[in-house]
Amino acid sequence: MGICTGRRWGAAQYEVVFDKLNGDFSKPLYTVTSDNNGNSNGANISHKILNQVAAKAGIEPGASGDISWSVYSIRGMKRVLSKVKKI
Fold first, then answer.
1. pTM exceeds 0.85
2. Are 35 and 42 in contact, with CB atoms under 8 Å apart?
3. pLDDT tens string for the chain (87 positions)?
4. How many angstroms from the chain centroid is the CA of residue 56?
5. Which residues contact 60 (CB under 8 A, 6 or more apart)?
């Protein structure tokens, strides 16, 4: 048995998370795994998903509103939320 150095955890995976405007993402409204089963650094997010996110945030159909989103980077057992959060 070798010593685990952390170098063999593989590539990072990504999740886009949505939350209410002042949420802390501890219990996101919705989570989308990035393309290629989380292995891509991009995500295609359809209007259908955005409508579901809006509904969970209490935004009525046809209305506009604000939500926050950010990205989790996951590598091995470590899951880190980006310090950058967008509205």
1. no
2. yes
3. 444 444 555 788 899 999 999 899 999 999 999 988 888 888 999 999 999 999 999 999 989 999 999 999 998 889 899 988 887
4. 15
5. none
